Amino acid sequence: MAHWRWNIPFEYTVYAWDLSVRGAHFDESHAFFNGTSIFLSVTGQTDEPCHIRLAPPVHTRRWKVYTSLPIASGHPEAAKQYGFGVYAAPNYDALIDHPVEMGTPQVLRFKAHGALHEMVFTGVAPKLDMARITRDVQKICASQIALFEPTHKQAPFLDSAQRYVFLVMVTGDGYGGLEHRASTALMTSRHDLPSLGVEPTEGYQTFLGLVSHEYFHTWNVKRIKPAAFAPYNLNRENHTRLLWVFEGFTSYYDDLMLLRSGVIGQNDYLRLLGKAISTVHRSVGRHKQSVAESSFDAWTRYYKQDENSPNALVSYYTKGSLVALGLDIVIRQGSHGTRSLDDVMRLLWERFGRDFYRGAGTGVGENSIIRLIREATGVDVAEFIERHVEGCEDVPLDRLLSQQGIAMVWKPASGDPTLNIRTRVVQGETHIAHVYEGGAAHAGGLSAGDIVVAVDSLRVTESGNLDKLLHRYQAEDVVLIHVFRRDELRAFPVTLAAQARSECTLEVS
Ligand code: ZN
User: 20 to 30 A Cα–Cα from 376, which one of 41, 398, 433, 486?
Assistant: First the structure.
């Protein structure tokens, strides 16, 4: 039967005003896009090579192109390096996995184990300490390459691109990241970036943690994938019970690699770890949902949160990172210090990751983690997984850490008494966004959606004012809270709680 091929010219305009790491944003100063926001997928032809011609804007000749997307070498209109022209991708999956930034950003470059990396800063960021950022990010990248490839120190992205590109959007208070096979799109606050001649803020560790997290994904999830993502089906949700491995382990290693590469010290690392433990323990949702369930429901629940989510959900990121820490210690103890979670990562890399884009591209089976950990380390973690991954039990970090010489100490956070709610100001009104289960407001009958209008007959105007009104009371005092629920005025006597947010600190014993 004859097989006809039609060339159909197709013209369309895209509305591009989403300044997030997953969208597309064009204005007179720059243009950024993810292929997912721009390129149509042709049913039945997604395995075919794609060419994309980028045309320069008419209002300036100064823009350059920053992307890990390879240049279409051999094509008559092939782009020159950083130039406009034709770029190429081997298939649709690759085409949408190389975001593109065009403009006049600040750029730094370095090599890690011989592989070229570049970091591109878009947005106003005066007096950036580029030397400091270069030095720190270089160390992080080099450490991660050496973790996965201790012998050959081969960077993972060379199967897809000539270099790795960090596309950083600098804003007032943005935060976020999205990983790709040879690049990542990051959003950061300019206050988290170091300035020349000034000691960096704690926020700089947040930025480096984000860099480390997304870079780690170059191995863990961009190449080592759940079988459910290999191949990824773009027409429907892709469910897996394993996101605690792909996001949780990555969240464990992001800060750990800052410590190992020497960009932060032990005290800073323990502070970050204490923060993660505090965050997980603050939410009662961890007793109701396992990280395996949380993974599976990512599409329908974790990314569609409602007013009750803090009471009903657990994060496969944060609890997943504690599971990774627990597993790391259990493996080290079970193997008498000869194996660690690193060995698991390396086995996953060799088995599933290294040749993912070169070969058949299989992924990690839903029920194979226990077997793979035993193969990599000789340690049986079946019971640990049953309790802390499939079940809702807390990872026993107090015991595990103390066996490693680290004491977990809980200190009540100082501060005013509290209603244990989260509020949101909408047009000058203080709305209750979340009522934390078991807290003061919950016991007193308040509900998410209530509009708080008065505390002991004094008017509540904005969130800062609610805190000020509570400032004069102590825990166990009863206050009368007036709220509108729907259009009905209600009054609830509420017994205030002490600041329930106790903080975990870790001390070397
Ligand atoms: Zn992630």
Answer: 398
Q: Which of 313, 325, 263, 305 is nearest to 283 (CA)?
A: 313
Classify burial at 383, counting beta carbons within 10 Å of its beta carbon; exposed 0-12, middle 13-18, buried 19 or more: exposed
Q: Is a pLDDT exceeding 70 seen at residue 323? A: yes
* C-alpha 249 – ligand 1 centre gap (Å): 9
Measured in Å, residue 81 CA sits from the centre of ligand 1 at 30
Torsion sign over Cα 251, 189, 168, 115:
negative
Question: Tokens 């993660």 belong to which residue?
Answer: 276
Task: Name residues whose C-beta falls within 8 Å of residue 1's C-beta, 6 or more positions apart in sequence.
Answer: none
d(CA 251, CA 264) in angstroms, rounded, equals 16
- The alpha carbon of 250 and the centre of ligand 1 are apart by a number of angstroms equal to 6
* pLDDT at 16 exceeding the cut of 90: yes
pTM: 0.94
Q: What is the pLDDT of residue 509?
A: 81
Distance 489 CA to ligand 1 centre (A): 44
Distance 482 CA to ligand 1 centre (A): 42
Pairing between strand 50-54 and 85-89? antiparallel
Task: Please report, as a single letter, which amino acid is at residue 96.
Answer: I
Round to whole Å and give the CA distance between 270 and 268: 5
1 pLDDT above the threshold of 60? no
Looking at residue 465, its pLDDT comes to 87
CB 101 within 8 A of CB 122: yes
Q: Per residue in 213-256, pLDDT tens?
A: 999 999 999 999 999 999 889 999 999 999 999 999 999 999 99
Q: How far is the CA of 11 from the centre of ligand 1 (A)?
A: 35
